[in-house]
Amino acid sequence: MVLIVPIAAIVFVLSLIIGYFIAEPLRLLLKKTRAYRAGANVVFEQDGRMLEADELSESLDNLAKKVESQQADLIRESRRQTEFVSDAAHELRTPLTAIRGNAEMLQDPDLPEAMRVKFTDIIVSESERLSRLVSNLLTLQRIERVQMLPEELSRVNLRQVAQSVVLALHALLEERGANVEIIGEAPDVLGSADHLREALTNLVENASRFIDPGGHITIELCGLRGSSVIQVKDDGAGFGDIDPSLLFGRFYRADLSRARNTGGTGLGLAIVKSIIDAHDGRIEAVNMPEGGANFIIAIPSIGS
């Protein structure tokens, strides 16, 4: 009986010590969690003292990384939206200014009939360009913000896509004196036929703007190292001595005056890149040694 009290005291002290060392990792974890909630930059490290605490630290670390990634995505999206609105406002201002200026000129009752017709034609032309610009803005925003769903994807034959594009653009290509040829075959891809058709339409239509009457556009298809490759080549003047990656930026024009004269909005190639990115593909542009531009698309192929 005499020994029970000392032994109980020793057991009690040992339990306190053991409890302290067991609880210490949890107290440290709680302290870090509170600091993280307060906005501090905290790393949830595993110290090996307690399995459960280590597992909880790992879970909290993964959660913190996920939150940080989501915050970074939100910041990028906010910045992208701000830039998009700024760019759009800048581009919309030009045709609106032209329309208003020419409309004010038409208010002159003494304006000669020839000048009245000229100003009216300018208003119609700028209105059409404004309409195309708004349409392309909506298209680009839709493609960039909406991820393609699995049910929207199907097996796509790229030669059939190319043939449908040339057929749809036949009247326009004939008007511009463009000779178009489709050569080669490429393995099928998994994607959206409508989106890929839209991308190729923009590339062919873009090429037709920068060739001389009677010029040539070649759509060349092939398979290379697990990718289906589409090349859209033309024998125009090329895009000059600039960084090719700039061509795919919103509202970029290699030749501003020439693009405006041909009705370009500076969004066609940005739309193309967004579509190809959505297909896990790549797009590049090069000047060909013999003259002209070559836009190269590579999309992962699917097996037969």
The helix-strand sequence is HHHEHHEEHEEHHEE
Number of domain modules: 3
CATH class of the largest domain: Alpha Beta
Helix content: 55-70%
Summarize the structure in words:
With 304 residues, the chain is an alpha+beta fold. The protein folds into three domains: 4-72, no CATH class; 90-145, Helix Hairpins; 152-300, Histidine kinase-like ATPase, C-terminal domain (Heat Shock Protein 90, 2-Layer Sandwich), CATH 3.30.565. The chain is 57% helix and 14% strand. The strands form two sheets. It has a five-stranded mixed β-sheet, covered by helices on one side. A two-stranded antiparallel ribbon has the order 1-3. Helix 4 crosses helix 6 (193-209) and helix 6 (193-209) runs antiparallel to helix 8 (268-278). The model is unreliable at 255-263 (pLDDT under 50).
